[in-house]
Every structure is written in C-alpha cells, then in structure tokens.
Automatic annotation (TrEMBL), chains A, B, C, D:
InterPro entries: Chorismate_synth, Chorismate_synth_AroC_sf, Chorismate_synthase_CS. The keyword Flavoprotein applies. SUPFAM superfamilies: Chorismate synthase, AroC (SSF103263). The lineage of its organism: Bacteria, Pseudomonadati, Pseudomonadota, Gammaproteobacteria, Chromatiales. The gene is aroC. One of its GO terms (cellular component) is cytosol. Residues 40-49 have a biased composition (Basic and acidic residues). FMN binds at residues 125-127, 238-239, 278, 293-297, 319. Its EC number is 4.2.3.5. It catalyses: 5-O-(1-carboxyvinyl)-3-phosphoshikimate = chorismate + phosphate. This is Chorismate synthase.
Amino acid sequence: MSGNSFGKLFVVTGFGESHGPALGAVVDGCPPGLPLTEADLQHDLDRRRPGQSRHTTQRREPDRVRILSGVFEGQTTGAPIGLLIENVDQRSKDYSEIMDRFRPGHADYTYHQKYGVRDYRGGGRSSARETAMRVAAGGIAKRYLRHRYGVEIRGWLSQLGPIPIEFRDPSAIDSNPFFAPDPARVPELEEYMDALRKSGDSVGARVDVEARGVPPGWGEPIFDRLDADIAHAMMSINAVKGVEIGDGFGVVAQRGTEHRDEMTPEGFLSNHSGGVLGGISSGQAVRVSIALKPTSSIRLPGRTVNTSGEAVEVVTRGRHDPCVGIRATPIAEAMLALVLMDHALRHRAQNADVDTGIPAYAEVPARGAMDPGES
Amino acid sequence: MSGNSFGKLFVVTGFGESHGPALGAVVDGCPPGLPLTEADLQHDLDRRRPGQSRHTTQRREPDRVRILSGVFEGQTTGAPIGLLIENVDQRSKDYSEIMDRFRPGHADYTYHQKYGVRDYRGGGRSSARETAMRVAAGGIAKRYLRHRYGVEIRGWLSQLGPIPIEFRDPSAIDSNPFFAPDPARVPELEEYMDALRKSGDSVGARVDVEARGVPPGWGEPIFDRLDADIAHAMMSINAVKGVEIGDGFGVVAQRGTEHRDEMTPEGFLSNHSGGVLGGISSGQAVRVSIALKPTSSIRLPGRTVNTSGEAVEVVTRGRHDPCVGIRATPIAEAMLALVLMDHALRHRAQNADVDTGIPAYAEVPARGAMDPGES
Amino acid sequence: MSGNSFGKLFVVTGFGESHGPALGAVVDGCPPGLPLTEADLQHDLDRRRPGQSRHTTQRREPDRVRILSGVFEGQTTGAPIGLLIENVDQRSKDYSEIMDRFRPGHADYTYHQKYGVRDYRGGGRSSARETAMRVAAGGIAKRYLRHRYGVEIRGWLSQLGPIPIEFRDPSAIDSNPFFAPDPARVPELEEYMDALRKSGDSVGARVDVEARGVPPGWGEPIFDRLDADIAHAMMSINAVKGVEIGDGFGVVAQRGTEHRDEMTPEGFLSNHSGGVLGGISSGQAVRVSIALKPTSSIRLPGRTVNTSGEAVEVVTRGRHDPCVGIRATPIAEAMLALVLMDHALRHRAQNADVDTGIPAYAEVPARGAMDPGES
Amino acid sequence: MSGNSFGKLFVVTGFGESHGPALGAVVDGCPPGLPLTEADLQHDLDRRRPGQSRHTTQRREPDRVRILSGVFEGQTTGAPIGLLIENVDQRSKDYSEIMDRFRPGHADYTYHQKYGVRDYRGGGRSSARETAMRVAAGGIAKRYLRHRYGVEIRGWLSQLGPIPIEFRDPSAIDSNPFFAPDPARVPELEEYMDALRKSGDSVGARVDVEARGVPPGWGEPIFDRLDADIAHAMMSINAVKGVEIGDGFGVVAQRGTEHRDEMTPEGFLSNHSGGVLGGISSGQAVRVSIALKPTSSIRLPGRTVNTSGEAVEVVTRGRHDPCVGIRATPIAEAMLALVLMDHALRHRAQNADVDTGIPAYAEVPARGAMDPGES
C-alpha cells in the first residue's frame, strides 16, 4: 500500500536503498514446479547492471542475486521467493553536500515534503538502483511465461535523444551497449554519447518492448485492463514520462477505418491496437513504447533552494548515467513480464474452465520473431 | 480483483452493462462530513452524457444519478456511497446481427475468448457507457479535493483528429460542445465533424487534464507513484492508447539542463515534470495528456470472422460517437480526481504527523488559473 | 479498504443502511457460465429474512433481490453482479429518541467517535440488516461451489442461551424456526423464547456450520490460512464474539495423541482439526462454531451517556430479535461459502497445473451427509 | 495474495523456510520519524526464541535480526523496512525419513496436495519458525503504538493443558518460562511439563492478550471490523483453533442485561465486549483469548499414509515444543499489535479531520495497568 509492492497475484515487494547494505524483494504467488536457479536471474541482471560500458554510470556493482527461500531442489515450491542483492560499491561521501539542498528534477524535495526525513545518500529509496530487484523478479515471471505459455518478451532502444533507431536486426540488440536493433547506428550513438558525457549534460530516450505469444483473454475489463496495468508498470520506472500502447499518440490523427485491425480466418491484418482490445489481450503481439527523461543528475550547476528555503546552486557529483534510457531496456522487459504474469494468474483464477472452441488469431502475414516494424 | 474496482483507500467499484437495467457504483472510503447531494454529481454527468450535440451519439439517456446510501442529512457519513443510474434508452435489437461476429477494433473477440459467453447488446460491460459511473464517483472526489485541499481539476480537448487546439481561453471550454479552449477554432471543428459524420468514419483525439493546488507529498515511491497511478487511471478509459505526464514524449529529445525544473525561493521556474518528481507531487500543477483512438463503431464495412471462424463483413449500426474523445474530457477529469483523492488519503495514513516546516512551492511567475501554456 | 468489501478474488462489496432506500452489493470475480436467476438467491434470503416467526423481529421486509448486471440469458458473464434489495418497512420515527444518546452494547458510541456523524435510524450501516446482502452474495458462491466442486454447506443452531441442541436429525433443520437439528427440542426452545420475549431481555446463541466435499489444497499458508479467513468472516458477523475451528477451545486440554487425526489409505480416522491443516483444507469436512452475543436492543432500561456527556437512561424501542443467533444460520453459511469460493479461485490461480497423483482422503467411516456428531 | 502478507496499510510480507538460509520480512507503510534500532526488536525476539528453558524446543537459534533498509540515522524514513534473521542451527537430516510420509496433524499432506512439491525439512514454510518474523515486525508496530498513542499490549498464558492460570500478578509474567501471571502456579506447571516431556506427548494451551489505551474509533464497519481482523490475525498463528473477543463463548448463555456494558460519565461499568462495539474500538481494553492445539510433532508413533498411498507409521524426531502455547505469548502480542497499527493508519486515512468533542471513555473503576480479571 505504500507503493513498494506490484501485482495482485504475482506480487513483488521490494526494499532497500542505494547506499544501504542491500536491496531485496519478495516474490509471492509464483506457481510451484518452475525450475529456477540464481543463474537464471543473473543474465538479465547483468544486462541492466552499471559499469558495462563507458556510456553508463561507473559504479561497480556485481549485482549478484541470492535466492533465500521458495526454491527447493531446483524448483519453486509455491512459497514466497526471497531475493537479496548486497550493495558493495557505495561512496556515500559523494552525497554529503546535497544533504540539505534539493537537486532540481530529483525526488529530494518531494521526499522531504512527504516524509520530513530523507536518506540523501545516492537518492536513498528513490534511486534507480531499486530497479535491479525489478529485473530479478521480472526474470522469474519471464521464465514462467516462456515455460508455461511460450511467451517471449524483448525490448530495444528506439530513440536516443534526437537519434531515431530503426528496427532492422533484432539479433544485434544484445551485441551493443545500447540495446539498439540497428548495428549500423551504433557508431553514431557512441559518438553522440561521448560528446554528451563531455558536455556534462544528459539526454532522454525512447524504449520499445514487445511480448509475442500472449494468448487471447489476459487482462481485466474496466479498471485493470491489461494496457492500464502496463501503463502503470511502465510509468513506475524511474524517469518515464510517457507510455504508448500500439500506435499510441499516433491514433489522434487516425481514422477508424485505418486504426481498426481487421480479422480474417488467417489472423489479424494489422496491429495498430498493440495487442489489446477492450483491455484484454487479442493474441497479437503486445507492443509498448516509453519515453525516458534526461536524468537530472548532471555536472552542470542548477538553481535550487536548500532546507532553509534559501536560493543556492547545486551540482550533482556522484556517478550517474548520462542517459538512463540506455539501461532501461531490461527494466521495461521485466515490468511487462510482471504485468503479463499477474494477468495470466488472474485470468485463470476466474476463467480456468472456459473453453471457447475458437482459435487464437495472431497477425498475418507471419512475421519474423522480432520484426514489429511491418505492422 | 476482476478489474471493476479502482483505488486503494477511496475505492470505486462499478457494475452494469450498456443495455442492462442500470449502471451502478459503490464509493467506499469517503471521509465523513462532506456536504453532498445528487445535484452535486449531476453537473459533470451532464457534461459527459450523450446527445448533447449533433457531434455525439444520439442515444438519449438522462443519466440521473441516485444516491442510495452513505449520505445522511446532506452529508457523507463515512459509510459506502451507493450510486445508481437507470438505463432508459436501450435499443437492443440494433445489435442482434453482431451477436455472432466480432467487430474489428472492438472487445467482442477478446471478451469472447476470455469468458466464453458475451452480452453483445451495445458492447455489454465493455461499452463506454460505464464511464458515467466514473464521472459520478469522480464528482465526489473532485468535491472533497476542492473543499478540503483547494485542488481544482480541469480538462480540455487539445487536438481533434488533425486539428490542434491551443489553450487560449479556459472560460470557453464549457461553452462549446468540444471542450475546446479556443473559441475561434469551434467553427472549424464543427465543420470537420459534420463531414466526418457524413463519411461514416471516425477520428481520434487528444485531451489534456490539469490539477492545480495539489500539495507536495502525494504519491508513493516505486510502484504506486502518483504518475504511475495516473497512467493506470487514464489508460483504463475506453479508447485511450497513450498517456503523458508533463512534457511526455517530448522528453526523449530533451537535455537534462532543459528538462529539470529549477527552483527558487519564489517557486519552480518551469513545469516540464508535470508536477511529479520521483512519483510524488511537487506542488506544481499536475499535467496529463491522453490519446484516444478513433472508435471502431463505424458504418463502413470491415472484414472480420464470426464465431464459427468464417470470414464475414460487419457494419456497426447502433448509435455511436464518431469521436469518442469529444466526451472524454469529464471522464479524464474524473479519473485524475480519483487518483488524487486516493493518494490524499494514502498520504495522510502514513504521514499524518509530518511537519517539515518547508513551504510548498508552486510555479512562478504566478499564472492564471487556467493558463498552462506558459510553462 | 473501508471495510465494506470481502474477498480477494471473489469480492463482495456492500452498501446500504437499515432505513435508507435500499441495500446493495456488487459481486466481482464470479466465473462465467454459472446458471443464475434471482429465484436461486431468494431461498436463502427467505431463510434469513425477518418476521418468519414470532421469535424474530416483526419488521416486515420481503427482501426481494434484483440482479442488475453480470447475468445474460440466464448465466453469469464474468462481469460484476449488481444486487439490490429495496427497504420497504422502515419506521424511522421509532429511533428519534436515541438520536443523541448511545445505546449500551451498540455501535452508537463507536460510530460517533469514528465518524463524528451518524445515521441513527435503525443503527444505520451498523444494523444487522446488511447481512441480507451477505446471504445474497453467499448464495452465488454456494451455487458455484456445488455446481463446480460438489461442496455442500449447512449450518444449524447448536445452543440457545442455556439450552444445548444436539445434532440428531439434519432433515429437521429447515422445518423449525430455530434451525435446530433436534425436533424434540423445539417445544422447549419455543417456550424459552416466549418467556424471554415477555421479559424484555435477550439471550446469546451458538451456531455450527460445516462444508463437506471441500477438496484438499484450498487456503494459503501463513496469514491467509483457510481457517484464518473463516475466523475473519465469522467474526465480521454482527454479534459474534467467538470462533472455533474443529475442536476449538476443546484443544486446550487435549493431548497430541488425541488431537492429531491419523490417516489410513481409507481416509482420516477422526476430524479434530475441523478440516484444516497448516491453514489448508485437508479434504475432511470443514467445521466451524460461532458464539453470538445477546442483542443489546432490549426494552429494559440501561444506563448510558448522551452526546453532551450527561448520564441518561435509554430503552430500545423499534423492532428487534430477542436472540439474533436464531437468524444467524444462513448468514454463517453464506460467509463460509464466500471464504471457500475465494480460496477456490486463489488456489487455482497459483496451482492450476498441479497434479499430485495422490487421492483426496476424507473421513472414514463414511458418514451421512449431515452427521458431524460422530467425529 | 498467496498468504504471505498481512495488513492493508502497515503491511508485513514474510518469507523463509525452517531450514533455508534465512527468514525475512518487509514492513511497508511505517510512518517516518520513529526511533528504531535492531536492539528495539530483539527484546521480543528473545522472549519468543527457542531454547530459553527445558520446556521448549532445544533448537539453538540466536534469532538476531538485521534491519536492511528503511531506517536512516536511527529513525524510520517511511521506506520499507527489510528485516533478516539467518538460520544457524538447522539439522535437516532429522527430517529425511518424513520426506515421503505425511505426519498426522501436520501440514505435510495439505502442502503436498496444494503444491505437488514440498520442502519437508523441518516443515519448510509451514514451520512455526516463521513466527519469528511476526514478532520482529510486530515489535515495530508495538513501538509506534506506544510512542504515538500510548497503547500498551501484554499477553500471558491463561491455561496450560488442564491447568487454569489466574491473573494474579502481571509483574510475574516475564519472570517465568511460561508467561504465567500467577507465580504460585509455576512449580505445578514445571512439574506438569516435565512429566509431559517424558511421556513423549504434547498438550494444548490458552493465551490471553490485551491492549490498553486504544483510542475509540479504530476498526472498520462490516467486514473489516477490528475484532474480525484480530480473529484473522490470531487464527493465522500456527496451532490456533479458537479465538474469543471479550467474553467469547461465554456470551452464549448470557442475557442482554448482563452483557451490555453500561456507560456513565465516568466510563464503562464493565467490559464484556472486549473493547469492540460494532467492530470499532470503544476505548475499553481490547481483550482476546486464543486456543492452541497440542503440537502433532511428538515421539509417539501414529498411523498415516505415504506418498504412494500406503499405510505406514510415523514418529516425529527433530526438536519440538511439547506445548507450542508456551512460546505463543509474544506472537499473539505481535499479531494484536499489527492489527491495531494497521487500523490506526486506516482510521486516520479516512477520518483524520474528525473531531467529535466527546471524551474517550474507558472502564471504571480505574484498574491497575495489568488487572483485567476484575471486569
């Protein structure tokens, strides 16, 4: 209720501060019998973790996750899964000067107003460091969705600041430090980031995520639509300021004849809807885009006030990502996995016995596993 | 849990189908002592209800709300508030031909796959008619927020299909059938809609909503950020495909120096954040934009399949809005009110005793009550 | 969250006051495809409703329930089921004298302290009249449990004031106004109640409820044990002051060798546990007992204070049950049904795919459908 | 949702198995500014922990709790509080022989049926060892309730098997290994336990808990009554089979004139209700009793079946409490604290602004801080 839990049936509850001893999470509601080891979760944690290239924060955290409960002899038992990652590379002295001043664009001022007390070291609870636990918990969801339902989730960087990145080669996504699906763009992205880093400024980004193989019927009508819960999940990621499903803001200027995805016995003829109709999955790919703001943790001084209400300047030292969007891809994937997992369980709770006899249609023509650009 | 409730402490639970006997809602958690009559809720219901102009559906529903409980001698008692609106103008025969075929772009197919059984009359539970109860329930929230905290919520149409609408005159919003804040644009909008209606097609729209006077400190960190819950609320409205907070997707190409809202002892110097920092309200105006798709209920035939899996054509007869975005303004206001109300209560549950001694900063220079365009 | 909802997946949300226009409830989460009519719910409502004999309150309420949504062509659709019962026999003038004084043993004082404002007519929201909606909602759960899982739920009066009632003839339960399973006791019960009514006093009662055919595996470990949720449900009924599962307080003086229910390939050899082990159903009958206090609504004057803090006397006029336990049997059945229904859905959400290959053991020797006395 | 969380606003989520590496809990929703150290929680953990006398299990666990988050510079920050206790004295080999057979009276069979897979070492998740985290989390609640509201919570053993224990000297409670409030009874209790231990059998117990200083107004009407949530909390403790509020099952034979607690300007004249009227605290002491069954972990062989469905005998080796009720007192206190804490926050969320001007009455004559026997 105080915002540290996500999901209704597959529930993730996180804790931990950027400069505290550890981050942790409890994952409750996981079905029993899922093969699971720590190594299974480490892959995505490594994709997210800092210090992987010169373009992200230089904080060195191995982000080794321990499973403390809920797994017995290599498989889940249905009991809550306790996860723990110890912080090892805190440098809290970096933050002492912002103890009494509010960095503009940060949560410093709002946390102070909300709680009256604030762990200012590295942003405390408001640090994006907490997203490590999202990735760990999301890894369990991803794994179950793949094993039980054949659902595959993939994200990529679709724009870095002013540079749009086309979806040309999904196999390239994990081969460059940007999660960019267009390898030909990578040199330009590196150049841009090097210049940005030198300038001391930061920049925004856009990330796309997609889930394929989602069966029709997931999502609840009215308030807990699949897309509403996805919007919730995505907007809860640090720095996200916009969420789109399917054509997103592009629908404003569309006509109904253009937008509605017609159906044939072979499948849907397009996917403007992003795989959700009336809040419920249609069997088409679920497609989501998010906008991430430029981090406010920059070396360039800004005007602000201190806890005494005086005008002061502030410079963020510490170690930060000049573009938080770069590391956001595995986080967005994890959040989409958590939503889908939760709705898989919610759906079968109410509708376990439903058998419509109607096939699950997907898009036609059949497209490559990672080729959303054609729709 | 099945999606018909919204909120954690100020909880709205709705029921009712488009062509059933009535729509209803239970509002639980309202603080006692709020003066409340049915007339107080009718104003917004009238703003939303169909048939107000030739540009919306011609279904004639008075949408008279009855308060069945929770109010005694003119004020709320703290008990749940039962609300009921009877349906009076159903014409279910209009829908018999779509009983066994799935209208493209509608929830027909997904509801069928989810539940195996479907009330096809007017879309049943998936009809936008349910939004009447959102507006009624949101009216209670709006009222409490204004009485207790001085919060004012206003929405407007900012784009109709290809026509952008500037924010020029807030006093005009309720004086035209589009909720357009630019009276000079109204003739163009009317002409556009007349042509659209004749064509049998539909179009999308963009709606903006704003809350002024929100105190700093509302919202929960991590998963239940104020903006995450707003995104959830907005994306749960029928036809919404995108949500932005503050600069929204505009942040992708922004620099950190540009985006971060600097503070002075007089207040914030800009409002790129949309009034939320780290998921918690900052005292700036909370600003939200949503994209609504063109309704798929159009007279132009489309390809689809029927319940036997055969290729068929379908035409939506019935009475429909050629642009659902037109009536969306009071709905978006209601959803923003519900989120803020819920977080007002959540905040004081945990932090009732917090007194920071720090003033609540708003934007400077002081702007007119409805002048968001300057930020 | 304000206490008017029950359940996590099969969720009942009620509203309405004793002397308001109507009582209502929304039942969300019911699986689709269940045959359901208003008549199906009326049977239990008639068992509970007042004025059925001279031993209960003489308020005349037909308690006719209307289904406003969620049912289409005779079966549930998965959409929320709106239920409404109109109040017809309010006599609010009976209550004007208790407007400013707190009846001892009632909720008058505590509601006043909680909310500052109070609907004093007939107890307002605190009246046991709200239990009509529990019975209506519980009727849906009972029906689903029987259709889908073969679960049968039955309750009876096991003690009236000082008179214990043995479980001799379950077929007699619905043939006397007390739900007493021993027809030979009925004349004594009638005589006792006639004398009690004349005295102007009231008395307590004990009610037993049992569910047979519950499959093993329902209930969640740790906090949401099946028995914990049953205790919650039962203690939430007006006037209940104690709850027992299985042998209840009898276990205090038992030895482990006596209490543990041994198992054989033919089944459990006893049922001291009341059908729950480690919070999870065992396949044995689920057995519950509750203690109901004597109503405080009596004609004999009592000392109290008024809203000005002065010492006053108060007499409850109105129309009341001299033993609220008499009408409690269908209410207790309904609450047990709601808990089991909720856990049936919760169980299959997480464990839909579990197949242990182990049979479900019940008690042996096989007993008559309503013969719990032997265990 | 899978049963490992308790509370709605002050939420405890636990994890960990008896023989896993650690037990943990996340406490979310704690108000900021509460002074808190690990030592503050250790006191109650030490009261609960095993091996304190020869009358409890001889497993040696220091039960040292670490606070991993949510506390900064000695006070709570409003962020979730991560708690961890490492298991140090597991002897899992003790359990290998029960790997494939279901101990009667245990959760072995029901967990197996629910999940299909089972961590059999020491009962896994079903072990009472998880109650350590309840005590740790409850310690935070106790502390806040005392600091902010002056609420004091105390429990004691009121019956051990056949031996009733009168409430004679509250100061003696923590001075004997039984939490017995009658020091004169202690030798008899020790003798009884020594004989019991020799016999290899186990016995039940009764524990009473009381909260003094609870303000009037806590608790929600209808389903989430304070007493309903208390019943839920208590019945969720391992081995509990019965819960009473106030006079409990004693009310069955009471008259209304006897039961109703009359009020005078000086206060309530009695406390039959146990401090709750209409589900809401009255200002009287909140009084609760629970019945704990004899543990089924005994050395005497019992009949059962194995996972192949064959008849077998089983003996529980391992190390166990011959009377789990002895260590239940701090657990029951913790659960009462969690319920009260949750309702304190829930109450102020909705009713923060209520000011009735009516004093909070308590019982008269004023009694000693720990003298419930007089009411």
